[in-house]
Amino acid sequence: MAQQLRGIRTRRAILDAAAEVFAQHGYHGASIAEILDKAQVTRGALYFHFASKDELVQGIFNEQVGGLGYPERMYKLQELVDSAMALACRLPQETMLRAGAKLAMDPRLQQLAGGGPWDAWADSFAKTVTEAKEQGEVFLHVSPRDLGHFLVSSWIGAQVVSQVKSGWQDLEERISVLFGYTLPSIALPAVLAQIDFAPDRGTRVLAEVRAHETPETVQ
Question: Is residue 167 part of a domain?
Answer without folding.
Answer: yes
